[in-house]
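Q: My labmate handed me this sequence with no annotations at all. I'd like to see what the chain might look like in three dimensions before we decide whether it's worth expressing. Could you predict it?
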Amino acid sequence: MDHIGEVIESSTKGFVARSPRVGESPSFGSFVKTDSSPVVYGLVYEIITQSSEPGRRPTAYDMSMDELKREQPQIFELLKTEFHVLTLAHTDSKKLNFTLSPLPPPIHSFIYECTDKEKKELSEQDFFLRTIVSSSNVPVDDLLISSLYHASTVRKDDSEYIVRMGKSLSRYFKDDYERLSSILRRVLY
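A: Here is what I predict for the chain of 189 residues:
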């Protein structure tokens, strides 16, 4: 299995990884893991493609992507794609712990998409929802919706699972019915 990124910034709360290919990354809300020890699991919450030179912006060429690749292939060497990950859990002697890792993943660790089995284990309980809801600087509502989509896809859209997670969300948003309603409508759409 090929890696989908390499850690370039790291903290116990999350990390930033650079994709090996411009314009490619795991999708928003995907479950990912590091190859470090301990293994750190998380959710992709932001994806950015930008100039690889600080302070520089890419120039618009008024060409299609195919035309750019054919006539200006060198410009893609000046771009980078990075994705930000919110830490959900880590392993400790092969046991999954739904807490922050005692150490951040090392710089240059490789990032991989989680297997279906790992996605199920990470999303079986509502711990991942609580982590998202209590996080600052992440798009909470959209990350809840997207991560629930990814979690339910590996369960073949199990309606009992969605109902159980919906009940958990109702506890987290008990004082904000409109927000809860909006999230649930979009999850079920």
